[in-house]
Amino acid sequence: MSTSELIPIDQILPNKLPIITLVGKPIFPGIFTPIMIGKEPDIQLVEQAISTDGMIGLVLQKDDTDEPSAGNLYQVGTAAKVIKKINLPDGGINIFISTFKRFKVKKYMSKEQPIIAAVTYLDDTNYDTDEVKALTRALISEMKQLSENNPLFSEEMRLNMINIDNPGKIADFIASILNIEKKEQQEILETLDVRERMEKVLIHISKEKELLRIQKKVQAEINEKIEKSQRDYFLREELKAIKQELGMAGDARSSDYQRFREKIDSFNLDGEIKEIVEQELEKFNLMEPSSSEYMVTRNWLDLVCSLPWNAPLSADFDIKHAQKVLEEDHYGLKDVKDRIIEYLAVRKLKRDSRGTILCLVGPPGVGKTSVGRSVARALGKQFFRFSVGGMRDEAEIKGHRRTYVGALPGKIIQGLKLTKSRDPVFMIDEIDKMGISYQGDPSSALLEALDPEQNFSFRDHYLDLPFDISNIFFIVTANTLDTIPRPLLDRMEVIQLPGYVDVEKIEIARHYLIPRSLERNGLAKNQVKYTRDALLAMIDGYAREAGVRNLEKALDKIHRKIAKAIVIENKQEERFVIDKHAVEKYLGKPIFRDDELKRATRPGMAVGLAWTSMGGDTLIIEAVANPGKEGFKLTGQMGSVMQESAGIAYTYVRNIAAQKYNIDAQYFESRQIHLHIPEGATPKDGPSAGITMATALLSLVLGKRIKDRLAMTGELSLTGQVLPIGGLREKTVAAKRNKIKEIIIPAANEKDLDEIPEHVKKGLVFHPVTRMEEVIDIAIGS
């Protein structure tokens, strides 16, 4: 064969091809392009191909796996010849290929890398019709428009497109340079009908033109906004200069700066505070209002300017006026008022506001919060109250760092900002109900605020400047001292507020609750009159608790019903008299009844006195003996201390029963004794029920009832000593509410009787004892 004769391409293309897998997009026939080869199996395939005829097959992967197999490849690919190979420093190679023709895989000779496939070559169809010629012109025309507006199309691309004379190759070339998804490009590669292929490419050109139009529109809008922003900036600067020349007010930032500057200068700050505030103010003056830091710094400066840095301290108070205010606002509470007046007298003598923090402790509804308000009124100071009950985040006390989104100062600084005073009265409610969580311990955060040795330079996290809060009069409230951390409690002067007895509740109702409730419900002062029996019936049947909150609710309920009668039945002029019978009419059946009073009605029962966070309470202790194996069972939600007390009582009674009462040991060995304290759902703990449990057990063993209307409290030792207890005042009030006549108390608590008001002790007989034998003599008899 002479060299002048041309050999058809089909005759030089081999029937088996080594397959190079493509990840990005397929490569079309008629293209000269470089390919990077990095995987070792592919490099070996290329080396083998170069050593023979240089032919390889290019097939697209269906996904981007690093180790493709035959099942992961499309069936149609492109045959190509390696023209040149360049070795790369990283071990890979760069090859330049010339692509010839489409092929379809008939069979894979090896399905794992290196992949070899037997192929059959594919020819274009339907390529010499008038429709194809028209589509060719349309394609070239559309691509000219597209390339003119797109800088990514080079002049070389435009020339190549015009010089290609084969319609199928024109469609392939355009498909290869358009931004089309790889699946759609593979679909075009697999389309052998030239007319259909060209139609598909035209559709993609139309989509590209639409995207280009939208892109132009978006770009134009962005450019317009940028130009407007720049124009506005220059105009604002010119306006600022003009206003400055005319002596007019500046922009909002300048106005804020001037306001902050005047306010800060008036404070006469010095030292660290002045230095930091000046720095922040100058930084604020240089900030653009659009800056993210602008509002953070502005809010911080606003807070600094709102605080009473040099506000004058309150004028000296009149102690007699303070005494009068406390008497006006609260009935009874003599000891509490005396303690507060003593405390105020010391402050007046020292002329120094620094000192102890008052802690008002008592059951709910006895007036702890209102005492705090009265103290503020008596001193003529601003009052700020916040509750820490359930608080778990120390940032509530000391604020957040101002770098956080939505940061706020703590309650102390907020209170100073609101009161605009350096020496207000701050009431911190429910200090015994603070919690600890991953967000910190609020009680520890309060330590600095409540310590007179530290709080002259209190630092809030948000403000981050030392502020003197030593002039604040802190009053905290709690229901119990048990849950207050000891370091916090050490900083406070504790004042106990006891519960009220019936006589006190009647006076409180007459002087405070009834007038307040009448006004709240729109009734005139003389429109409703209560008899003493009616008030007693309400206290005894509906509000038998330490405080007066339920009594006030009962009064509100009656007054609402009266208001309804006045409006609906038109009884405007009528005067309502509430007697004992009217109480039941308005409030329904009593919640508490006399037959519910806790009394020891049979052997094995005794009445004890307990102290809880709700005030004093009476406990009935029950014991029964059942035949069976020896045992001692306890129920009624007793805590560990109370369970130990029960064990001591059982051991003591078993010992004394044999020695003094000749009860045979067989009695205990053949019985299981069960001791129970109702109500079973209420947790109980503490040692003060020791003598009560021993009395109940001995009453059961002897089969004798204890004396009626007798209650007792005291800790029992294993040898029969009666040890002192706490909360005698609250327990006495509870006994009075339960119609108790006699109370057995430890002799060591006899001194505490002096602190109990005479009207509470009236009608009660106290039996101070030192030994359990004395308790038995009083309660059961010899």
UniProtKB/TrEMBL annotation:
- Give all residue intervals belonging to the Lon proteolytic domain: 600-782
Residues of the active site are: S688, K731
Q: Which reaction does it catalyse?
A: Hydrolysis of proteins in presence of ATP
Annotated ATP binding lies at G362, P363, P364, G365, V366, G367, K368, T369
This molecule's function is given as: ATP-dependent serine protease that mediates the selective degradation of mutant and abnormal proteins as well as certain short-lived regulatory proteins. Required for cellular homeostasis and for survival from DNA damage and developmental changes induced by stress. Degrades polypeptides processively to yield small peptide fragments that are 5 to 10 amino acids long. Binds to DNA in a double-stranded, site-specific manner.
Its chief place of residence is: cytoplasm
Q: Which UniProt keywords apply?
A: ATP-binding, Cytoplasm, Hydrolase, Nucleotide-binding, Protease, Serine protease, Stress response
Lineage, top-rank taxon, reads: Bacteria
Name listed for the protein in its UniProt record: Lon protease
Q: Which residues belong to any copy of the Lon N-terminal domain?
A: 17-209
